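Q: I'm a student working through a structural biology exercise. My instructor gave each of us a protein and asked us to get a predicted structure, then write a short paragraph describing it. Mine is Cytosolic carboxypeptidase 4 isoform X3. I'm not confident about reading structure output yet, so if you can add a plain explanation after the tokens, that would really help. Here is the sequence I was given:
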Amino acid sequence: MNPFVPLGAPRRSILLMSLVDVFDRGLWRLSLLDSTDFAFVPVAKLRCSFGGHRGQRQCCQKASVLFPGNDLHRNVTFRDAGEGKGEKGAFPNGNRAKMSCPVCGALWKVLVNGPFYVLSLLKRKLKMEDTREDSSEPDAPAQASQPQPWTFSKSSLIRKLRQHLISSRSRPVMAAPSSSGLEVLLGTLQNAGDMESMLNILNVLDELLSAGTDRRIHHMISKGGSEALLTALVNSARSFTPNYTILLPLLHLLAKVGHRDRQIGLKAQKADAVLVVLGLLRQNVENARRAAACLWVLRVFCSSVTTAELLGKNRGLDVVFRLMSPHTTKHLRTVKAAADAFTAMLCSKMNCRTAVAKGYIADLLKLYEDWHNNDTNLKNVPIRRALLYCLHLAASSSVGRDAIVAVDGISLLFQTTQTCLTMKGLESLVEPAIQLMRKCNPKIPLPLTSDRSAYSFPLPSRPVDDWEADLELYDGSSEDDSEEDAENEEPDNRDYEDDLETDVNKLRPRPEPDRPLEQLGQYVHLCPELHHDFQDLDSSSEVDESSDDDSILEGESNYKLNDHRNSASPSIRENHFKTNDFHKHYFGCSRKGQEGQSSMVDRLLEKYGTSIPNHDPRLYAATAADTKSIAGYSILAFPDFWGHLPPQEQEPMAKRPPHVQRKKVFEDLKRVICPEDMINKVVFDMDEPSLQCPSDVCPSSLRFFSKFESGNLRKAIQVRSHEYDLILNADVNSSAHCQWFYFEVSGMMANVPYRFNIINCEKGNSQCNYGMQPVLYSVREALEGRPHWLRTGSEICYYRNNFCPRRGQKHPFYTLTFTVTFRHEDDVCYLAYHYPYTYTTLQTHLKMLEKSVDPRKVFFRHQNLCDTLGGNSCSLVTITACPTSRAWKHLHQLRNRPCVVLTARVHPGESNASWVLKGTLEFLCSDDPVAESLREAYIFKIVPMLNPDGVINGNNRCSLTAEDLNRQWLKPDPNLSPTIYHTKGFLYYLNSIGRTPLVFCDYHGHSRKKNVFLYGCSMKETLWQSGSPINTASLKEDPGYRTIAKTLDRIAPAFSLNSCNYLVEKSRASTARVVVWREIGVLRSYTMESTYNGCNQGLYKGLQTGTQELEEMGLKFSQSLLTLRRNSAHYSSRLIQHTSALLDLDDRLLPHKSNTRLSVRRRLSQPSLCCRISHRLFLLLYFTEEKSVNLTARTERAV
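A: Happy to help. First, here is the predicted structure for Cytosolic carboxypeptidase 4 isoform X3. I'll explain a few features afterward.
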């Protein structure tokens, strides 16, 4: 530790300066911010040497004191007033060091008595006169004339400190008695005329603010610290000869404090400090140190736009830009400070226009190029980065961007950035340069004749042109996925508080219908199980339930999740498939073309065969003839016609190559820099009939086609030899909602990478940035026995581009880019956003399920809920178990089963929801014992596709009305939203006859999150989360809404309990989940979200979900419903016995699930224990709502 420098200051300053030196040496640091905020920081060793008194050079002996950091303490002896002998300090360990100097003695008295002693001195109000002798006896002046020895005491210390603070050229305005030490210092600083006093106070403040966190700076700002510093600055700078000994530390401290004060610019204007600092800068242009200090202060002043404009009006830009010199090795700190100040001043658009008008933008580019070319040793990277930030601020205005483009700045930045990529240590320059180039890249309207969809549909009681006027009002940035959170990646960082419902009246269920009860009679026929007489059953015969029970307990589950990974069609053995022949013989779906195509279908099936479960190509073609589309589709997509099997192996998430987005952006920028290298040839266009046929129109390019059911591709443009820009079609009667794609591509070369850019996506982020891939179906692979939709694509990324709508809308577009390498020459392939599931596929599947079930066991009814606007049928499926006989007991049990209502596909682009529902349907219709138990326990009412028209016509989100049907549940229009109107009416009908559904679940897909999870509704959780003052303890709410999620967390590997929430948001008030909960009174009203990507937890961690995993999720959801019936009076012994099949599913459970459950299951699997505990008991123990239950203890008690 360095010794104190001897001080030669007057007595009135020695105390304060001594304290400053103590602060500087780190002996102890006393925070003057608050009377209770201090810290005693011991150091290893202190050597002090103070200057002598009245010419006495060394009046104190040096003393060394080791404080409690080193386990060595020395006694200290000091002298106090009135004491004739030394007094020992409270330090142990025997060694003594006498201190005869009164200054050191007083100082050690301060140290021993603690920081509170000094703080009490600083906080006293200084009301004394310049001399204390005025209040003494009459003979005091005579005594004072004689020199007296200077003995320090506590009273002497107080007097000298007060005398120091009082004796200045102008008497300061002192603080109130309750003022803190910080306020005393700030008040003294504003009015002190003594240079040395100001320096001491500035040093104290600088030391206080240098230690600790920003909390100290913010506290000082709250006490008026910024205003005090500004006042002191103005007072010091306005003197005839400014003293830079004071101004420099004052400017440094002001820059430090102003950086944390958001109002510093406005305060500087109010104190007239802005132009003062600008004047100081003009006077010191040649003095680098002073200029840098002024520039730092001007930079913080420009946090206010008005301050920046004030500087611009007073030619501040000229002064600052003059200091931004070309490459030099001198005054680098000043050049960097000038670049930062210039950047801050460009926050004003007026300054940006001024800079453009004076040619500063071109000069900035030249400066950047000069520093780039001459900075060979890479020592001036911060200056180059500061120049880039200058250009960034300039590019924030349109005039700035135009100026950069006008001087070919993008080419310059492109060349310099390519050089930076080749040199180590310049990575920090690459990202800002790329962002600057992207910002300056001119906006280009989409190469379309119109923003609106290529398809339009006349709406009832609404002219076709009405919706065109609404297009200009649409802002695509407001689009939000159903139940989705605006998140960047996995963390759920959305702020719910502003959107949560806090009105208790709106949160309370109110099951009054929104229509007259007389209208509900039209839904009577939708409950055929309640009126069917079951005449085919023999009422006189009773089934021996005991014998059935025994056989079921001894047997195993007959149903396993359809595992088709290893099944395949017979391989092709002759004559390789020719895509040219395929294009000549498209599969027609119109009735006129069916006869001509039937022979081709028969030949294909005879030659190649197919073994897709629950799929028949002939039935599909016949069903497609009844599907009505706006475009009048006459072509069947081969994957939908032929069928699909899950791949043999699960597919991992794609690994994102490093800097892939940077690479793609560079390639996009080359279009602007080198436009002559672009092909820009349209190879497919739905608006041009001549470019819709996939014939040999462009033999050197790929061929595209999308005019089939659920297809979506509007235009394809070849930009390079193996790169294509693809434009999606907006939803019908809309100009937005572009995300879903499904198209055919052919004419490719094998093993050649093709880049596809979908350039008009609208979502702000995508799981494609986090491992998700599109899917591909190869016709040749299918005919060779591998009919799989496979995840495909490399170098996948999703980023904002420079395209914009043609009119009226300002929302940005995003590019989804991926590279595909095809395996076969001249193949026919299909690319899609996710696994397609068409309306015709659903109708075919329902017909095959109806044929496959045993009508004596399964009551299966496929009915028409209503017709859509497009003239298609909206299906309603009823599934339950047939009664054992026509006996009153059995019929009564059937008609008292609770209802479970399931819906799906309200958003056409969420095809994963249909695959989950497919798993539910197949499981409920199977012979699995658990499925039999579910049919005996519930009546399932299923609407598998709420938006058939949107699915058929390739929409992503809306129906034919260009409205989100999941926002129409509050007041659905019977003419414009018939499927929602009648689904809600049917739920009202069930409620009116006393059969309110036990569970309602709407299946959805989620594009921004991983895993599968539930959204539910809870009044208490919503009020608690929103911070409502309502006492939620007084509210009663059944916690059973969490049961299904807890069960799924135990049995479903793709399910994530942590992603579930039960908050009711204002923006979701018109969704199915919230409306059914509030108006129908369904406690367990859910939205189940399934990811497009994959899982980041559990058994499927790191894997993308396929159709097999999605169907499994539907199966697991069905199984979870058993937990709701275990305490029911109708919970029959047959149902309990059937549920023992769940043990088979538990065998492949689940690394992320509870270790307690696994250990209990292992104990129960031991022969000595299994022989005593039935499967029924285990099921009841396993499916319990409370996770914290000690299952082991319950099992022992049961035994």
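A: Here are two points you could use in your paragraph. The two ends are 76 Å apart (CA to CA). The mean pLDDT is 77. It's a good idea to check both against the output above yourself.
Q: Great, thank you!
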